[in-house]
Structures are given as structure tokens and as C-alpha cells.
């Protein structure tokens, strides 16, 4: 369960064969030379050591202590706090299993079990006997629309099923070492042709698009364009937001007309290119292939339908999806190359910063922010202008700005998408903030699970420095501003600002009592402005268009737009940006196209582990800080997971409690022990072992933990329980009576094969634990004692003869 | 200077003062576990919560700086409930017995582990003092007791229980035989007079403890000899009369007025006693109930009716205990009753509210697993149990060795543990969140310092203190969340972790998680 701690304590099966690499202490010396020897260097040093050895050998850590100011106590405390760090060797490949909300409701537990079964892991083990694979549960990979997701090394696999697990792992192993990185950032990207009227082919390459095969599509587009000499530039663009349609290819012809292709497979690329661009400079070899292609196409036009068809953004699902959205934080989504600074500048990039430096006083900038009504997008919704003004007014020579990119809510990935797709926008927003408050140093704190975001921000900072947008005397002013990146190391709590500060300072990510607030005493006890990624990404637009223009969107107290990660049991999942004030129903039905698979819309989980479940009956609640909290949810960072009637609300509450309990830093009693006790009660309820009085005790605990915990994590941890108790109390009571109405809680259900069984033996063949004896042409029977409720039989049955029934004697 | 109020009491304190300090200046005691003056508040235990009226929020007083005009609630039901819950949560994760199982098994609640430790150190004099704090007639009981303590001994589930009763007898015999036998100090004369009807185990014991509190005792026995059922329910082989007489003599020697052959067999005789004494204690055994009408007290088939909390009959100055109220009971129960009723009578005589002897707060381990038993056994002598034959008593070495078989189940910090004391004060229920799940373990065996992670409340004090040492390896939190624990970097020992500051670390530990191994001294 608790990977960070478990790894330090549990002993792997002795027979596990894992070659410990010889410890090359010279590497440690070099690392220390690179990162310095101050206490704040501990996390980067540990990350470097872990990258080198794939775990943290004691000898290396001791060497670090000899060479630096880092004490044995500090290095031990820090290296065991963050989930990223391992203290024992791991297998050659890491299988990260996402435990995010969307993955959870789509059966991540079953995936994890299937992987353990495939690798032959015994309880407590995480690495297979051959030392090939190590399984590592992670809080959220941020690919929620592809749920359930696993990442093997740096390859992401989405929409897994327990049945597809073995082939996925085998497939990965077969790819072997010749496979190239799925990150396509640093490769040569300009691919212009000699033609005059140059079109553009845009391929969305967000992390989750890549997981859906966009990388291969991108490669194929480049290959085809080169080989036929099409007059088109191939352009990588960031996340388009339509995760349900990926891989996505958009073609812009020389005349400006555009077409959008969804679910593109590499073998369709050639046809897409040919539909839109005339080949030029054709060599004879190409000519042959071209004629062949034309013939094929011709054949199709005469009879069969074309294999690829463009979808129109003007009508149909894409229109419905995009229609109600308003893009500010995600402006130019799908249009611009994330790393092309000049393109960002052509889209008015850094105009706002220039104005802030040349024309506006700090007060004027902050007033503009105040007029916009901007509130923090990270969760709590604190008015940004107040924070800015406090830091501005703080009497200190040194001040800092921090961009909080430690997006950790399972089910939310907008910050990753913004960092990956619009790095310059976030940099500009943060630069404006820095100038406004008088800070000359800024840090991006980005979670370790987002390597692409880290890479792109690093790259963008370097580009900005080269262009004089960052560094000494930026944009010709006398203002100097330096930004750098600090990577998180796997701790949700570091999204809490005081914990984040401790982490940057090189400590364990434990929060402290506020006040004093970071705006008064933050990083290294200096006044520090901390804003979330999305908040900062809105700033340039506000400065360009004016605060009043921003405030035109939204409600009385909630202005502008909000980005949501729409996922779960929905037709069209994706990353959306909507004006505040739209209702949950509009989002679910119109943008999301309603609940998938014809199920009944039950609730929406908003705000992740600090949020709550809004029942379908309250779906007309608008997206508004106050309105959402009045129904027991919170705006949060913007995770929106749609639930249907097969989702058990007690299980959902337990899921979030597991998360917060696992992520608790362990500092204060209420959170450390209180969340554990709450979880135990929820486990009992889901397991059908609840005692009389457990519900009352649970409610009491919710109240106590929320009022007694030190920081926001503990204070809000009970919210998922409270909101489900508020709206779905009867489900809790049903569990107390031994019944899970949604048929989800394993201890309360049984698989039963009905008379519709035709004896095809498919279920028996697929059952991973041999709980169904194969009896051809006869009705099959599930051995309830052996059954692990993996759901495989129900999925493979061609006759729908497997049903989930109430378990009679547990 | 900023002015704040705590529980409606106002005080002016300099800016930067914490609420905790301000409260202290007002004489309001706020409980703290993780806070120690001179160290950074870790705001971990959350037992020092107070309520800030402005925000309505509970805040840790140790780290909350005062703000002018602040209004704080400390002694309210809400705040107390929050403190209690914090304590209950800590206790739900607490692995250890405050008091050893033998404490609860012994009706007299004698501090058996302490006695054994003293005997283990060849400290006979301290041992007899420990024994006599709860048992007035140890040489007698050492021969006739049915030994409920040994049945409760944790070691009985591993091999055999510690021979508590034999060792107690040994100590008592040795004391009787010594030139300077132990004699408790008696307080100055209180001016109060107690008549005790019956000189059996209950009456004798009551006299022993009442005299120590300065009350005059008149022991009235119907027969010609003192001892009551100790005499007629035992044979002289099991209980040599010399021993019995010697121990009775020790009690009487505390200036107890004795009247033998004086049955109180009439209403008049009883009322005369009542009139001439401040309290009358009925300790005349099972037959006492037959006199209930004569003595104007209620009786039932079992015995004389009393308030079970206070030992008072319906007449507030008439008390009853032992077989007189129980009909039938163990000798040790009678002796225990004598001690307890003496306490109640003392409360009555000094004008206090008469209450039941306080039930100590106790976190309890309950059943231990085999692996846990190994942890216990590792700290005890591994010799098998031995009982002396009648002619040849234990040798000094055997006494020490047999005493060292004790598993020291109770907590070293008992009585001195802040968690225990606050739990008692706030009425915390250690089982509110279920029975314990943590595993009992003792780390650091072989070194000077032992650490019981199950008792650690993660206050961070030892970590802070150890970090000040120049030569120590330091201590560190390992892991996070519920599983976080205090450990020594790079597999060092706890001695290495704390170095020269071990004593300070141990003194700072708010519970009994950290201590010097007594055996290592």
C-alpha cells in the first residue's frame, strides 16, 4: 500500500535475482560537484543517484554525507519520504500502475492484480523472479481519459483490460531496447519543403496522445511528407484537449482550409496526406507508389468508403465538444508548437510582460489582476491580487515566486497539459507576477511524474534566456529575473505550499502551521508568492485584454474560465476550458456527450481527494467556487470524474481515503492516525464487516479530522466521505446489511453463470485462477471460493450469461 | 503590548508570544506532548489545541502566535473533546501496557514488576516497602494465596509464570527475620478514631493503613486471638503460627488498640461504638450479615449491603468490607479490601468526597503473538522457573535470577508518561477506535538505549535533540504517513544515533518509547 515506506522496510524474497550494480563513487562525486553541497541539493542529488543506479545504494548516500553539508539524518529522512526513491534494487523495467480516480473507476485494481498474477508476484513482492519488472503503483499518471493506464519505463499504455495485460507486457519486452523514446521533444522538428504554398500538418503530442500512438503517427506523417514531398510542414502541437479522439491529425492546406482526423492509425497517414497535398518533386520510385495509391483510392471511391474521413469542427461531436468552451489558459490549443518561442511571440506572447516592464507600475498590474477577479486555480480559490499585494508590500530585499506545478489530485491533469503545451505562457505569467511583486528569482516546482513537462519548461526557460526574456536586464529593462526548475519526488502533500517550500529547501515535505503565510515568510523565510500553473497561465491574457474583459466571464464571485479534466464514465473525455458559471450538466451532457455505454448518470466527483461527489440530481449546480462548496464539493484543481450506476459510492469514498491516507505526511495526529482509522472503517464497510456504530464513529472522525488536522490535506480529507454520506447514505446502509447495490465491492458480490450459458468454455479458458471448470456444451459454474472477482468471465462471455449477484455467505 | 483573552481572562503579552506561553502566564495549563521549551514546536500531537473565536478554528497553541485582541477558548467542552480525540487516536496506535497484566490480576494491585526489579537488584529493603504499600500481610499471603497474579503473568503463556508469590514470601520472611524489620511511617495523630470489628485479614489490613494516616484504631475481636479466618481456615503446616503471629505483631506494633474476646453482639454495644468513634468498620467476616438488623444496616444473602464505590453502608460513618460484604472471597481479596476501605475511611475522615479507589488509566496490549513474546523474552532471564523446597529456601542468587525472569511488561514511564496522564485527565478511551493492531517490538537490545516504536508518538523531540550533538549519527524520521517511524541513519544503533545526548533525548520523550536498558547498567 504505502510504497515509500514499504520499500524501506520490507525485505524482498531472498531468491529474487537482481544484480546490484557496483557502486561507482566517482559518479557521486561528480553529482555533488554539479548540484553543490548545500542542504537544498539533497533531492536533485538523490534523483541523479537513483537515475544512475535505479535505486539509492547506502554507500552512495554515505558518500554524499561525507562530501556535503547534508547530514545522515537529512538524507535518510528525505530519501524515505518521497515515493520516487527506492532503497533496494529494482527490476530492469518499472511498471507504473496508475491509481488515479479515472483509472480506479475503470478497474485499475483489476489491472494491478492481473500484472501481479502475470509476473507471479507473491504478496509483499514487487519484482518478478527474473528481476525484469518492478511494479510500482503511482498516484496518478495524468492520462485520465485513457484509463486504466500503466506506464512501462517511458511507454504509456492506455485502456487496458486484465486480459490485455499479458500481451502488453510481452509486447513491451519484445520491443526490447531498440525502441526509441516516446518523447519527441528534442528531435529535429522543422520539416519544411521547398514548395511555395506551404500547408501545415498538426499532430497533437501531449503525454496522453503519445500513449495512444500519436508518436508513431507523427513519425509516419514525417516519413510520408518527406517521401512524397508534400508541401506541408509537419508540426507537433500540444494537447488538443480531445483526448477521446486521439491520435489527432489536423491538416491545413495552403489556402487555409483545415481538416481534422480522429483516431488516426499510422497506416492511414499516407492517405490523409494525399487527400490534402499535391506531391512535388516526385522521384520515379515515388511515382510508382503514387499511382498505386491513386488506383487504390479510385477503387474505393467507386465502391467502398474511404478509410479515413475528416470530421468537421463546425458540426457533430467535435462541435459539441468545443462549442461551449472558452480558451484562455489554453488559448491557441492545438495550433501552436509548444516549444517554438517565435510562434508564441507571433501569438502576442510576451507582449503583456513587456507592458508590465515598460508602461505599468506594480500597483497597476496588481489592480488589473484585482479587476479580473482572478482566484487561485489550485484548489482553495484565494484571490490572487491579495496574495500579490501582500508579497509586493512585504519589506524584504529578497523575494521569490514559485509556480506550483505539483498537481497531484488523481483525476486532474490540466497543469501537466498547460506546462507541456504552453510553457511560454506560464513563464510569461510567472514573469509578470515576479515583476509585480518585486521578485528576481522564480522556481517551477513540478512533480516528478511529469517528465515531459519538466523537459519542456527547462527547454523553454533556456530559449527565453537566449532571447533575453529571462536573465539579466530582461527585454531591455533593468529588471533581472532568473527562473529554474525544481522537480518533486513523489509526494502529493508537496502541493501544499508550506510543504512545497520545505521540499525546495531540501527537506521532508511536511507542512507547517500557517500563519505566517508564505507571502510573509516563505522560501528561506523570505516573502514568497506561490501560484498554481493554471492561475499563472491566465495572467498574460488578463494583462493583454484587461481585467474587466476577463471578469465578463463567470459568475458574481467566480470570474473567467476554469480548465477541467473530464474523465470517467463519459462519452467524450478530455481537457476542457469553460467559462465559470456553466452547469455540471452542460459539461457532462453537451461537452462530454453524456454517460458512456448507456448507463445511468449517477454523480460527478469534483475536486479530487479534497472534493466531493455531486449527485446527478444536483447537476444544475454551476461551476462556481461558492456554489460547488455549498453542495459539498470544491472547485479544486479541476478533476471531474463522471460516475455511473455501476460505481459504488462507498468504494469511491474509500478510494479517496486510501489516497489521502497514503499521501499523509504523518506529521499531525489527526491526519496520520485519523485518516487511517477512517479508512479502516470504510474497508470494513466495503468488506461487509462493519459493526453497528461504525457509521456514527466514521462521521465523528470526519468532523474531528477536519477540524483538528494541521494542513489542508487533513482538513479536507473527510470531504469525499461526508459528501457521499450526505447524498448516498442508503448505499452505506445497504453495505451494513451486506449488500453492495452497485455490485462493486468484492466481498459482497459473487459471479454467477445463468442458464443462458451455451457451454462455449470461453470463461473457463480466460479465468486466471481456474475458478471455472471447463465443461463443453454444459452450463458452467463459478467456484466462489476460488474466484477473485476479476470480472474477466463476464467480459469475455459472448452470451452475457455471467451476472454479478449478491454474495450469500462470505 | 498586545492584549488577548483566554477563557475570558485577559493578559498583555509581548508580540511573538505563543498562546501556550500566554496561557501559562495566566495559570491555565494546556496539555502538550510534542512541545518542549527551547525546541521548535513540531505541531504534531495536536493535544494542545485551543479554539480561536475569530475564526472558530482549532489551532495548536504551542505554535500559534498571539494577535492583539485574540480571544481563545481552552477549557471548553469542545476543546476538551478535541484533545480527547487526539489522545484517543494516539492511543489507538499505541502498542504497550501502561501496567503489567499482573497488576490487574492481583486484587491488591501490588506493583509486582517493581518488587521483582528490586529483588533482581538484591534490594530487599525496597522490595518489602513496595510490597507493603499494598499488602499488609505478605508473609502470610505468601503461603496461602491462590496466586491470581501468576495466572495473569504474561510469561505463563511462554513457559511458566514468574514465582511472584514465592518471591514475595521470601522478601517478607527475610524482613521478619531481620533486625530492622520494615515499619511504615505513621502520620501524626489526626484526632479521629476508628473502631474495627473483626481482626481477620480485612480488619488487620485496614488497621495497618489507617494507622499510617494517623487515625487511632481500635481493633475489636470476638475470639481470644487475632487473625480471624487466617487462623481457622488454614493449617499450621501451610501457615506456621509463628509467621502469622509475627506479621500480626507488626501491625499491632503500629499502636493499634486491641480488644479480644469482645463480641459486638447487641444493638447497644454497636451504637456505643458508633457514638464513641468517628467511623465503625465492619470486618467480621461472613457472619456479620446476621447482625445487620441489630446494627441497623442493610443486608442480603451475600452480605452487608454497601455502596460498592465507597464501602459505606447506608449509615455514612459505618463501613463494611471483606467477607462481611462478599460472603466468600480470597484471602488476598480480604487484604485488598482492608487497604481500599482504609483509603475510603481516610477520605471520609478528612472531609473529602468518598470515592472508589481510582481505576488507573491503562493502555493494554492484550494477547501477544509468538513473535511479540520473543521480544519480551529477549529482555528477561532465560532460566526456568524454580521453587524452593521447604527445608532449603532460595539462595540470594536464585532470588535475583528468578526475579529477572520477569518480562517487565509494564511501561517504564508509567506514572511519568504524559500520554498516560493526559489520557486519564481527559477520560480518553484507549479502545474507542478498536483494539490495537501495531506489533510490539523493542529495538536496540545489546545497547544502552532501548526504543519501543509502538509507543512513539512521532513528536520529533529526540530527532531535534540528537541533531544538536557533535558526535552522534543523529536520528531521523523514516518513511511517511501512518508508517513513519524514528530510526537511526545507515542502520546505526540508537546509542550511536543519540551519542552523548541520549539522556536528554530520553528525558524529553513524552512517553515510554525511549529508555535506558535497566539490564545494561
From TrEMBL, chain A:
Q: Does the keyword Ribosomal protein apply?
A: no
The record's comment on protein family reads: Belongs to the complex I 51 kDa subunit family.
The UniProt keywords, alphabetically, are: 4Fe-4S, Iron, Iron-sulfur, Metal-binding
Domain 4Fe-4S ferredoxin-type as annotated: residue spans: 748-777, 778-807
* Name of the protein in its database record: NAD(P)H-dependent oxidoreductase subunit E
Presence of the UniProt keyword Disulfide bond in the record:
no
Q: Which Pfam families match?
A: 2Fe-2S_thioredx, Complex1_51K, Fer4_21, NADH_4Fe-4S
Gene3D superfamilies, sorted: 3.10.20.600, 3.30.70.20, 6.10.250.1450, Glutaredoxin, NADH-quinone oxidoreductase subunit E, NADH-ubiquinone oxidoreductase 51kDa subunit, NADH-ubiquinone oxidoreductase 51kDa subunit, iron-sulphur binding domain
Q: Which organism is it from?
A: Aporhodopirellula aestuarii
Automatic annotation (TrEMBL), chain B:
Which residue numbers delimit the 2Fe-2S ferredoxin-type domain? 2-78
Kindly provide the name given to this protein in its UniProt entry.
Answer: 2Fe-2S iron-sulfur cluster-binding protein
Cross-referenced InterPro entries: 2Fe-2S_ferredoxin-like_sf (IPR036010), 2Fe-2S_ferredoxin-type (IPR001041), DPD_II (IPR028261), FAD/NAD-bd_sf (IPR036188), Glutamate_Synthase (IPR051394)
Organism this protein belongs to: Aporhodopirellula aestuarii
